[in-house]
Predict the 3D structure of the following.
Amino acid sequence: MNSLFIRVFGGVFAALLAASLLCLLLFHGLNHVRFKHYQEDLAAPLFRWLASHEGTDSASLVAAIQPEGVEIRHRERASLKLSAVQRERLQYGHTLVDTSHTGSQVVIQGRDGQLVTGFFPNLYRDINLLMARLLATQVQALSPAGQEQALPILAQHFPIEPRLVSANELPQISLPARQRLEQRGWIAYEDYVNSRQVTLVRLGDNRYLLSAAQPYFHGFGWPVVLALIAVTAFVVGLAVYFLLNALDYRLRTLETVASRIARGELDARIEESRLDAIGRLGKVFNSMAEHIQRLVHVQREMIHAVSHELRTPVARIRFGVQMIEDCPDRASMEKQLAGIDSDIQELNELIDEILTYARLEQGGPILDFQEINIRKVVEQVVKEQGTLKPNIHIETSFSPDSEHWELSEVEPRYIHRALQNLVGNALRYANSRIRVACCFEADTCRIDVEDDGPGIPEEDWERVFTPFSRLDDSRTRSSGGYGLGLSIVRRILYWHGGQAFLGRSELGGARFTLIWPRKQPA
């Protein structure tokens, strides 16, 4: 969970960081272009008016009212260093604005080919103030009625909102601002509510021109905000897409492997590359697939072996029944009946072995773990098996201090069955001696069952635990068994969290070892 969370969180965080950097660059880039257009749109109306009034007294009029620091004049084209793009734009009548840390220079081409240039320390303030004073100068000489008629006509050339007001209609301004208005005839102040500059110019004793400029440049305009939202959504969406695509690819791989297994390709497996939630799911899935493959393999072998094992006793029973009809006396009949009974017992034992192994192989048998004395189980098994072949000596040995650790959490029935199978197997192959050595420690229990028989070749040590596997061609119960006993032993130890393996005994024969933990995990 932590690995998956860190990867997803890291991917989203990296996407947000990349989106933030990209939005920052985009914000500055877009606003640089937008501010350039804003300045050109702001200066263009005034400079078009100046370019269209060349040769009139407009130049002297503008020179008389221009704010301090503003310089407007006519210049030759060769006196300015212009790029090819700037010269082409001037040919099309565009207004150029070049801003530096000292102010802004505005250039437009006049009708005679000369350039009208202007330098403004504060372009927004000075342009709007100059347009308002220029408009006031043009209407000041007219009568009040003429002013009302001429103002809309003159104002259509400039991007301002002028209106004539009386002294009683003046907006609320401070006393120092009112004094400056009376002294120099004009003031400019900030309209913070509407985010723009307002200019007041006195026209006469009781009349004023109030001019509201266009709003200030706003960096977070709707186009910019929408562009930033779109970029952020795109970058984050792209990152989430790649994260989910990788997750979806791995899930589709899991789905494909599951479909292959459903079609019968039981060897299909998922590549276990990561240790996150999907990787753990793949590991569990592979474990499940291996278990299913093993169960199917065991089932096939069991069906094949069972069908083979059943033939012999069934055939003997059928033959015995037929022989009963031909028995000449009572003794012969009882002999045949005894043989039939023996074959039925053999079938019963075979079915018991098969059912036991099937229960242990079905994936999770119900085990009732109890704390019991393992030493008593060993002694009971040795006592039971010792009566089967009295000529073979079975000895038991316990390591020192084993009495402190004789109690272990096991399923009594299955542990008894495992020991019984091992001792019974040793009885079939031992010549004269069997040794059961026990070592009980704080954490583990170990039991070794050894015999002095012919032993088992090392290359067959794993094969003997395979279901229905025999190392000889015998099919009789006395020597070969059914090939399930040792498989049952290994599965019992598996479900106890232990192991069963084979080695070579000092007695000369085989040594089977069982090891399991004394305490089962919760």
Notes: The two ends are 23 Å apart (CA to CA).
